[in-house]
Amino acid sequence: MKIAVIGFGGTIGMVPDMSGALVPARSIADLVTLSPQLEELADLELIQMENRDSTNINPDHWSNLAQKVWYLNDKVDGIVVTHGTDTMSYTASAVSIAIGRSLKIPVIFTGSQLPISDPGSDARFNLENSFKTALVAIEKGIAEVMIVFSDRVLRASRSLKTSESRFDAFDSPAFPYLAHISAGGVKFSSRVLKKKSNEEISDLTPFFQFNREIFAIDVVPGLDPEILREIINSKRCRALLLKSLGAGNVPSEGSYSLIPIIEEAINSGVPVLISTKFAGGKTSPDIYEPGQRALRAGAIPTNDMTDVMAQVKLMWLLAKGFDSFDTLKQQMLHSFVGELS
């Protein structure tokens, strides 16, 4: 089986230089050299795309990577992407929705909390688990973007980074794991997405662009609505994402009320989405009066999508364009790659 290994930087791609200081590896080949058993598991195609801290990964990088994955879609049996942990969920979610169900192969993102050269590093463990997962996924005809970290296999579009130091740094709080990895092997659940037929794929068109003209903000006590008003009036903001305090509620009383802001944004042609910033949470704004008022003002809830996926999907849909708020709402609440229930 042929597996492409794409280097995208991050802690996992750091190696010691001649003085012993940690520096980015020159290429993904250096990383594979430190884990030679990978070449025994599959025929490898090594591709170095980026070599940077994931904090500096942006939507342009998402587009480039998605296009590379799409190019390889018919040329290899699977793909493993090494990536920094801080923004891995964003990039993996973006690649997932950009290609959609046209994907024919498993694509696995992984990284590490410690460089591969460190004693006790999780890098080699995660890399080997990623390859084992890819091989099983290929045999089963699984075709979706996943994150493998520690002993967990997660749907990329449902994933979140939940710890800056734990070895099990990623979780999928609102959706069960796709597989667990143990001494007994990789055991996939029945929830995985399988490769579609060529006839079905022919009707699906990947789209690789993301519009970055959005403003996403946590709704916190004391948030001054005038700040949001200035942003909307700037005409630079094409959409507003409010990460709510609970199940979709926003302040609705006095000078701190965001209801007028939502109304003004909608009237100006700027859609307003409400997500929840709580891991495993779900927006149900129709339960409480503040949430009901936000809905009546025109806000769009994001159901049980992660706040990461809500942002990535909104950027993707904005780039595609929409003819009405109803169309945007319909698309936001449509599950393209299993990103919501």
Description of the molecule:
The protein has 341 residues and is α/β, with parallel strands linked by helices. The chain has 2 domains: 2-201, Rossmann fold, CATH 3.40.50; 214-332, Rossmann fold, CATH 3.40.50. Helix content is 31%, strand content 20%. The protein has helices at residues 28-33, 38-41, 59-72, 88-99, 123-140, 198-201, 225-233, 259-267, 289-297, 307-320, 325-332, and strands at 2-8, 14-16, 22-24, 43-50, 78-82, 107-110, 145-149, 152-155, 160-161, 170-171, 179-182, 185-188, 214-218, 239-244, 272-276, 300-301. An 8-stranded mixed β-sheet has the order 4-1-5-6-7-8-11-12, with helices on both faces. Strands 13-14-15-16 form a 4-stranded parallel β-sheet. A hairpin with a 2-residue loop joins β11 (179-182) and β12 (185-188). The radius of gyration is 21 Å and the shape is globular.
The low-confidence runs, each spanning 5 or more residues with pLDDT under 50, are none
Strand content: 15-25%
Order of H and E elements: EEEHHEHEHEHEEEEEEHEHEHEHEHH
Q: Which fold does the CATH topology of the largest domain refer to?
A: Rossmann fold
Q: What is the count of helical runs?
A: 11
Give the N-to-C terminal Cα separation: 33 Å
Structural class: alpha/beta
Portion of residues within helices: 25-40%
Whole-number tally of structural domains: 2
Side-by-side strand order of the widest sheet = 4-1-5-6-7-8-11-12
The CATH superfamily name of the largest domain is L-asparaginase, N-terminal domain
CATH architectural group of the largest domain? 3-Layer(aba) Sandwich
Rg for CA atoms: 21 Å
Average pLDDT, all residues: 90
